[in-house]
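Example with several molecule types.
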Amino acid sequence: MADLEFRDVHKSFGAVRALGGVSFAVREGETHACVGENGAGKSTLLKIVAGILRADRGEILWRGAPLRVGSPHDALAVTDRVGRLDEPAMRSRAAALLDELHVPVSADRRMEHLSPAHVQLVQVARALAFDCRVLVLDEPTTSLTDAEATQLFGVLAALKARGVTILFVSHRLPEVFRLCDRITVLRDGHHIATFDREAATVDQVVRAMVGREPPGHVPRERPAGDARPALSVRDLVRRPRVNGVSFDVAAGEIVGVFGLVGSGRTELVETIFGLARPDAGSVDVHGHRLAPGAPASAIRSGVALVPEDRQRQGLFFNLSLGDNLALPGAALVSHRLIRRREERDGAASQIAALSIKAPGLQVTPDRLSGGNQQKVVVGKWLGIAPRVLLLDEPTKGVDIGAKYEIHNIIRREASRGMACLVASSDLPEVLALADRILVVRDGRLRGELSAVEADEERVMRLAAAPAEGPA
Amino acid sequence: MRRFWHTRELSTVAILALEAIVFTWYLWPEGGRAHPFLNGPNGLLILKYSSIYGIAAIGAAIVIISGGIDLAPGAVIALTSVVTGHLFVKSGWPLAPSVAAGLLTGAAAGLVSSWLIVRVGLPPFIATLGVMGIARGVAFIITEARYYDLSRTIPPGSRLLGVPVDWVAPVVMIAAACVFQFLMKRFQWGRAVFAIGGNETAAVFTGIAVGRVKTSVYVVAGLLASVSGIVLAVAQGQGKADLATGYELDIIASAVVGGASLAGGRGSVVGAVLGALIFGVLRNALPQIPGATFYDRLIVGLVVIVIVVLDQVLVRHER
Ligand SMILES: Nc1ncnc2c1ncn2[C@@H]1O[C@H](COP(=O)(O)OP(=O)(O)OP(=O)(O)O)[C@@H](O)[C@H]1O
Ligand SMILES: [Mg+2]
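Resulting structure tokens for the full complex:
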């Protein structure tokens, strides 16, 4: 029985065809994954289901009749009601709801005080408040740690038990296989295949996604010589999240920083880059002391930061792709006039190197799919050829192929002598990439593991250990 | 049509042209009499009075693009006329240093606004509201309800650097528009202004000196407002404290009609000047229509709304 059926759905944005006739069916009550490379059309499909976009052609049937979604505003009105919680009846209903789904959030908390992970859980819980039958989720776990993702899956399971049909987009195949009954693969706006979870293997799905063999890893070569540290952090304090951190990164070394949400890893890299003025401590790059609290000075010393939140911290949606890619370089050059040709060449080479899928240099980044936006943020910093590259969640929302590409780029640049510090909540990524892993908890280093001795269990034990007195 | 609207300056030119055609047709005289609207001296008059708004609107557009707002230009215009008038008439300074001091006053007002915004962390609306009050207040304190007679400073028919004196204001406006259009579009500084208005957090993360750029933006806006102040003082022949009352809103409206988005990150210097001309034509032509005198503020208000709504409908449609 097909209960949410896509029939020949087409959608184009100007000359860009996002969906070129997609047909498949989702059964009522199942959890259905939709996977594919960046720009495959997943988000577009979900936005059409949610009524944010309108299909050019084709239709979506719900229980055999054309799906009529209200405008997204319908959903917003409900949000408002559940979110405000000033009436007692409202509060008890919300509390019951959160309780039923095991969401560890008090109904009295204001949304602005919640962590992003909890905001997400509340948003999902809201689905129940207006008794929704179909829930679509676009990459809900990208910024969650495993523990938080597990919480989310618990909530989704509770929803499923109540008969809610779930359509789920993710780039993390392990969770897709854990959670979903069936898996649909999209590529270049076309439906490629739908697998039953029991009958499919990860390899099969990946091959369907990329349409070729997945790219392999660039082997790691550590450049010889020069043992002096490229980045040297000493007793760095930025209260309350960074409480005295010291470490070195050698030229050509990739060091991973792992910590749970709230452990202070983001604050650590941001303080190193000068976005926050440290309360104490110092940062040296190739023996040169960075001015505290001055990102421009860090950039001039060859430091770059790929930030955690590309929408808020990385991209300018009012500027062209070319300008976005060129802006960090502006801090380095002395000429005040923009040199269009130089910038265009630089931008074009970043687009080629990262295989960014974009209709041109003139478009604004909102025209790009999520993964391609992330590549733009990486590209804009690689463009200045940094000597020390700080990355915070560098492959958030990036598909497997592109993730390998970004990893390979990091490895390649490291082989050429760049020092890399990768902060991530994606433990497999840290394990795959780093030569050495620093584990942070409560703003302090709780341990250091070399690539050979590190495994998920040991890292997690350090990251999550209860505080038994100061370390 | 959409592409046309997208090149925002072009659509503003089109509105201006449409407006001129409508008034030319509507005010067409009977018999062989001279056209009251479409004639050389009237055109010059429109240009001259529009440039008072237009020069300041260039600064307003830049501030708005940077994601801020400046409520001070009306008061800065008055203060500049008073400072220049006081030094020239009362203290007997030569003209050039008096004008220079007036311009410095405007730049200083911008510096105070930017200090309040960048260092103290006040929202631009509040900071410039305060500076507006201060500038107006200082002007009243200096003049003590008098005014400075500047009508004999520049004899009519004289030339300034070879430019007939009536043409000085339009020429300054056009020159300033060209210079700042170039700065905004071709210079790192202009791109930084757009970047800050588009996403200030990302600008900080990208290493742009946000504080310094914002400071320069408000200083430029103050300076341009004081240029308007000099022009207005000369045109009216006096420097006084209640000059240009309420002009700040017309100046902001010019920038907005010319394509500046109050959300920041979008707008055009040339558009702001064209916006000032659109209002200049309205202000000139409406009083010539019998019976329209009482309607002109209403019509100006409607024009702002219609143009901005049209803009939003067409641009939002893209998404
Ligand atoms: N508003 C838009 N304007 C123009 N093109 C768009 C727009 N939104 C999406 N696209 C294009 O449509 C295609 C599909 O985008 P979509 O966001 O659906 O991809 P996706 O599968 O969600 O990718 P990702 O995994 O990176 O999030 C991409 O090529 C993208 O550039
Ligand atoms: Mg997407």
